[in-house]
Design brief:
Elements lengths: L1 H17 L23 E2 L9 E2 L7 E4 L1 H6 L5 H4 L6 E5 L7 E5 L7 E5 L2 E2 L19 E7 L3 H4 L6 E7 L7 E9 L3 E12 L2 E16 L7 E15 L5 E15 L2 E2 L9 E2 L4 E18 L4 E18 L2 E22 L3 E20 L10 E17 L3 E12 L5 E11 L4 E12 L3 H5 L1 E2 L3 E2 L7 E14 L4 E13 L2 E4 L8 E4 L4 E15 L2 E14 L2 E2 L6 E10 L5 E10 L2 E5 L8 E5 L2 E11 L4 E8 L7 E3 L2 E2 L4 E9 L1
Parallel strand pairs: 6-9
Antiparallel strand pairs: 1-2, 3-8, 4-5, 6-7, 8-9, 10-11, 10-42, 11-12, 12-13, 13-14, 14-17, 15-16, 17-18, 18-19, 19-20, 20-21, 21-22, 22-23, 23-24, 24-27, 25-26, 27-28, 28-31, 29-30, 31-32, 32-33, 32-34, 34-35, 35-38, 36-37, 38-39, 39-42, 40-41
Length: 652
């Protein structure tokens, strides 16, 4: 399988750079944001100023998956397209709707800060965001900023930041409707209404994904289905040229079947069919932001408030087994001042974040060991950021943050980065930063009778790391290749211990360092308007306490090849995603002490096509897992087999 992936990667790259670069402007939008030059993608996640920063002025590694990319790859589950981003490892518990973790550069899933339209959406109780609940909207983009970003965002941003953005009415106006069906009793649909009316920009969207699913237990017969819905409303009102008020509301609901782990018999420690078992995740998010521009737009001040409310329930025959609630309330003030000349531009930014996280355990059978009241953690963060750009070639930036917490020691994090682009199309860049991750509620106070006890004395995890990269653009930026080396160190890592004589699991802080280093490589090219190639590959070596870290393959890669007809009425995309061999923990020993196992490498191939019947009506179809690869991303959870889907889309 490795040979298959490597051969396709070599073929794609060779074809891209062997083809002559056309001189005429590119009529097709760039599909990914590892861009350079004047057409560089704009990234809003990289600054607290609210400014969109060109990707080629960042020392940090960044990837942008724009709306055209998500559409061309017929993305329905957002975590699927994240597999095409360098250094991202995705782990899903079997079927669509199952718990899904994303790791960046070997960090943990809870070391990744996730934003949706500027809202911090990680589950405060779980301490991380479950990507299994995120289905794709009709017009959206994804920004992935890699490396330690706690100096901007505080706790969680050790591996990096992922932001999912729905497009505004000005960016994608009109009405769009989509419906499709296919294998495993699957139906997916989406609707969007957006536009600009006077000084009001509006965008309303909704999407749904329903499937009967497939078995996830080895040798099992019970289909694990899911029902997911999502809805977003985004309004921006500009009553004057200097004042803008934005409101965002989002709702997400997932009801997914599940299987449990066998606690007896020959299948002990593996997933088995569990009729009646399912889980629900319901989340409400909101944000309101007012921005005032002064001094001819050079000085902006923004005041915002946001909340996230997530409720999880595990059910057995519709009765509650256990669950939890997590809430986050956050207020921020950001002030940015811009000054300088056309050739030297400065930006100073200051920000204050005031945040409260609340936690509550839901229990079917409360006992003296399970606290079902509410606890909370308060945090105040102070941010300073400075950026300078010289002649649109040299960009230097730095940021520092001080977090004062009522539960943990106060922490200072910082970051510095630089980028320089030569006239030859070569760009060199580098960054150094520190990060912090506070323990989650379950780590501190979680309890599972006879199997797990939380540890309220845990310390925050701390990280520091650096990266250095080089990129080269060819043919007027029609092709770009790049490579980045990264190196990180994590201290106070939270891990699970099994102390004798009872071997009841409890978390603790390691007194040794965990290390992650590796190389990211990407290539993107559009030698002619009718053909595009995107390639990503990552080599990662992640070690903890002398051993290999789980669910972090040494090799990850993807190739996407899209062909368009001359009149752009038809297109086809081939996607090949490779996931190398990786380690995982299996609880197959009755002591519940994990046994290390190896999960086989796998290659997933998707093929899709779309055709415009009229300028407003299109039909499309795709096959996922074309060669019916059998694979496991998490020990004993069987991945989904080959599926075919077709649908229709209308735009007005």
């Amino acid at each position: 399988m490795t040979r298959i992936f490597v051969s396709l990667a070599v073929l794609a790259t060779a074809t891209a750079f062997a083809s002559p670069a056309a001189a005429e402007p590119d009529p097709i939008a760039a599909a990914t944001g590892e861009a350079a030059g004047g057409d560089a993608e704009l990234v809003v996640t990289a600054s607290r100023s609210g400014d969109a920063v060109p990707a080629d002025q960042l020392g940090a590694s960044v990837t942008v998956l724009d709306a055209a990319t998500l559409d061309q790859r017929q993305t329905r589950i957002v975590s699927d397209v994240l597999r095409d981003v360098p250094a991202l490892a995705v782990s899903r518990t079997g079927a669509v709707g199952g718990t899904t973790q994303v790791r960046i550069r070997g960090s943990e899933g809870n070391h990744v800060l996730v934003l949706i339209d500027g809202i911090e959406v990680s589950d405060p109780y779980q301490g991380e965001y479950d990507f299994g609940t995120l289905i794709a909207d009709e017009a959206a983009r994804v920004e992935v900023l890699r490396g330690q970003q706690s100096a901007l965002y505080g706790s969680d941003a050790i591996g990096g930041v992922i932001q999912y953005l729905t497009l505004s009415g000005a960016e994608a106006p009109g009405v769009s409707l989509r419906a499709e069906g296919g294998s495993f009793g699957t139906f997916s649909g989406g609707a969007r209404v957006a536009g600009v009316a006077g000084n009001l920009d509006y965008a309303l969207s909704s999407s749904t994904y329903l499937t009967d699913g497939t078995p996830t237990a080895r040798g099992g017969s019970r289909d694990i289905g899911a029902k997911s819905v999502g809805a977003t409303g985004k309004l921006s009102w500009s009553p004057t040229d200097t004042l803008k008020v934005t409101g965002v509301g989002r709702y997400s609901y997932t009801d997914a079947d599940s299987n449990d782990t066998a606690l007896s018999g020959p299948q002990f420690g593996t997933i088995v069919d569990t009729p009646g078992a399912r889980s629900t995740v319901e989340a409400h998010y909101g944000l309101i932001r007012a921005e005032l521009a002064l001094a001819d737009g050079r000085w902006t001040n923004a005041l915002s408030g946001q909340f996230a409310d997530t409720t999880r329930r595990a059910l057995a025959d519709d009765a509650l087994s256990f669950g939890n609630k997590g809430r986050r309330y956050k207020g921020s003030f950001e002030s940015a001042f811009r000054f300088g000349t056309d050739s030297i531009r400065h930006r100073l930014t200051a920000a204050v974040d005031v945040e409260r996280e609340e936690f509550q355990t839901l229990s079917a059978a409360p006992s003296e060991f399970v606290f079902t009241g509410r606890r909370h953690t308060d945090n105040v963060g102070f941010v300073g950021q400075y950026d300078v750009v010289v002649d649109d070639a040299l960009a230097i930036g730095g940021s520092v943050r001080r977090d004062e917490n009522n539960r943990f020691d106060d922490t200072t994090t910082y970051r510095a980065q630089a980028s320089y682009r030569f006239a030859t199309g070569t760009r060199v860049r580098g960054a150094y930063g520190t990060g912090v991750k506070n323990p989650g509620y379950f780590d501190l106070f979680g309890y599972s009778d006879g199997r797990y006890i939380g540890n309220p004395n845990l310390k925050p995890e701390k990280s520091k790391g650096w990266e250095a990269g080089v990129e080269q653009a060819f043919g007027g930026d029609r092709a770009t290749i790049g490579a980045t080396y990264f190196d990180s160190r994590l201290t106070n890592e939270i891990f699970t211990t099994y102390p004798a004589p009872d071997f009841v699991a409890t978390p603790g802080n390691r007194n040794t360092r965990s290390t992650q280093h590796g190389v990211e490589v990407f290539a993107t090219a559009q030698p002619i308007p009718q053909l595009r190639f995107d390639l990503a590959y990552t080599y990662l070596k992640a070690r903890e306490d002398g051993g290999v870290e789980i669910r972090r393959p040494n090799h990850i890669g993807s190739v996407n090849m899209t062909a368009f007809s001359r009149d752009e009425s038809a297109s086809a995309t081939l996607t090949v995603r490779y996931n190398g061999r990786q380690q995982d923990d299996a609880y197959t020993d009755p002591s519940y002490v994990p046994v290390r196992v190896s999960l086989q490498e796998y290659v997933l191939v998707n093929l899709n096509a779309a055709y415009k019947l009229t300028p407003r009506l299109s039909v499309f179809g795709r096959v996922e897992n074309l060669f019916d690869e059998r694979y496991e991303e998490v020990f004993s959870y069987v991945g989904q087999g080959r599926g075919a889907y077709a649908g229709v889309k209308a735009a007005f």
